[in-house]
Give the backbone structure.
Amino acid sequence: MSDTNTPAAVPAQQTTTHSVRGSGQGPTQERDVALPPLDAGLEEEREYVGLLYQRLDDLREEKQAQLAKVRRTGAVGTMQNQSERDAFATMYEDRLAQLNAVDDRLVFGRLDLDSGECRYIGRIGLTSEGRQRLMLDWRAPEAGVFYQATAFDRQGVRRRRHLLLKRREVQGLEDEVLDTSVLEESTENHGDGALLAALKARRTGQMGDIVATIQAEQDRIIRADRSGVLVVQGGPGTGKTAVALHRAAYLLYAHRDRLKSAGVLIVGPNSTFMSYIERVLPSLGETGVVMSSLADLYPGVRGVEETDPQVAQIKGRLDWVDIIASAVRARQRNIPEPRIVTVEGVEVTVTPKMIRRGLERARATGKPYNEARTTFVKVVVKEIAEKLERILEKRSAGNGADRSYLVEEVRSSREVRVLLNLCWLPRTPQNLLEDLFSKPKYLAAVAPQLTAQEQRLLQRSPGTAFTVADAPLLDEAAELLGELDESAGREEARQKAAREKDLENARKAVENVTPQMAEMGIEGFLSAEDVAALNADSGPSMSAAERAGVDRTWTYGHVVVDEAQELSPMQWHVLFRRVPLKSVTAVGDIAQGSSPSASTDWREAFAPFIDDRLRIEELTVNYRTPRIMVELAERVAAANGLEVTSLRTVREGDFEPIIERVDAQELIHAAVTGVAAEHERIGEGLVAVIAPARLLESTREGLISAYGQRVGRGAGSMTQDIVAMTAEEAKGLEFDAVVLVEPAELLEEAHGRIGSLYVALTRSTHSLRVLASRDLPAGFSV
Ligand SMILES: Nc1ncnc2c1ncn2[C@@H]1O[C@H](COP(=O)(O)OP(=O)(O)OP(=O)(O)O)[C@@H](O)[C@H]1O
């Protein structure tokens, strides 16, 4: 058995055959299937695709049987035997999950080369039992020409064929003949291009992959080098999100050893967006990535919206690195004058000098605040105990009794504990931030960078929920405070030792199984770290991705950030800490920026974190929005002072945008009827009402009373056929039709920044209806 990703090299027209096992569980039957000739038609391609699915099913069956066998063996034998079994079991499970995920439209392309070689391109690489290459993984270097070859630069390609599948069924072929001499040989040339067919398709509410139709400018970005920061700038609908996700899949393929254990983090603006994109990577056979919205950047706390844009802007500044450091330092303080504590009925005077020695020794450890506190406590307790001992010695005229118990007595004395806490209170990131925002004097003392007015804006009562903009501040505080539990350091050391032991065992196991896996043609599916995680002697076993998702200190091999223009400097600061090699793909559009901290220049945005080794690539074709709507959006942007690069569009569009004037009190009713009118116009599909925040709830209620269950709610709302949201929430999403309510108010609520309205105008793939009771913003009329 072999199913890896080395190049396919099968001459196209000679009658090459592949030997394929028959289906079913019975005895193996061998049958030969010829590779379709260059002028193959639908029937021949169907036969070949049938062969590929046959191979997929066989592999699946094989893995299922192997997994069942390993599981039957049970947890017996030496630690190393168990590790080996676990290694195999995880590998089979991973592989099975991957084989299941790629079932839909397994293969999509065929290349016929000048050399006579024919390559099939699909979601994974497949070879026959006899090690004959059947299909190339789209990410393999040899598959690159499928996306790159053009009539001007053929790169040895005579013909590129798209196989249009619905699930497992070949429904059509589409040929691009790059060498005109092939024209006579080819009888097939089928209708609409694969790209247009994909773009016209109704939206499901979840983003799909674009693997069959990646365009050359996108492919270059997807396969770009992993090192450093790559920014992909592009207008709406240019495929930035799609490219970012396919790049993650590509990097996981090309650097599997490194990235499988370190992991890839994908960051997006909010949870609706994260559920919109969550299926793309699994459909490409990749499951081991961690996805996080900006609200979840600090594990364990889901930030609510920061409603005041000024507050969000203040919290986004890098000044907080210093403010939080001062806030932490300010929580270590000396006593102004000596204090008396009573231990065992004896009064002991604690002097500022004794406390200072404790503070200095603790700071000298260089450990985070809570961990250094252990040293502080140890030093001061010892000093008090020694003083107490001297007093007791004096009283008992030096009878030399054993007084080693005194240290424990001092440590457990309530008065001593109060004094120690007064000087060095154990803190969690949450308490620290809560204190900063609820104690104006504390904030004033540690944040001279903020004006009095800014400090006032930050004030809030204790217990208020943490916001998205607090997440990076919590993270920064956690970094400086360290573990709260004094025993955590010891526990951590114990766990580290246990992990190292597991890792050593796992390395031996992987060494043993690797040759057997290689024999089977499987490489790089499991690292020693994965096996070690399975054997970890504490808690349930977790995959690298699961562990990374809950561990604030996890460092990733690569980070992908979508809607990157919206991130504040503090959010970048936290993200860069998670990727020490600074291997980052950031995709976004400066023109769509709407958050209070949105970047207006990519180089400026990254200057604090990296030197000038920043690569900026641009995408220039809008695949989502028809030309008529793009023109409207660009006109409105320009009329409101926003410079946007004019985009090329792939589709003209079938429907002119409709602009309806309505009375203010009729807006919601008009939105409800507008949805029905849009469904009538476009047929089935997802219609979104994009409304100002003030009208959102009443709009949603109006829609629910008219359409009931059809109206989506929460993160999974996009899978229904009607949704209502603000322009901010619509960022990154797309719909078949959009009903846009009161554009003047959208502009106003973004404080005159056009970004949100520009976003709203570019969300639709087919049709747009604008409802306005007030004057329309500039640019709406020609
Ligand atoms: N090469 C392609 N083949 C098929 N569909 C594509 C291709 N490129 C982009 N698309 C489709 O175009 C639409 C827009 O893509 P995407 O959401 O990635 O754009 P974007 O640049 O992130 O947009 P925005 O900035 O407006 O959120 C999606 O439906 C995507 O699947």
About this structure: Residues 195, 198-199, 210, 213-215, 218, 234, 236-242, 589, 592, 623-624, 732, 734, 762 surround adenosine-5'-triphosphate (CB under 6 Å).
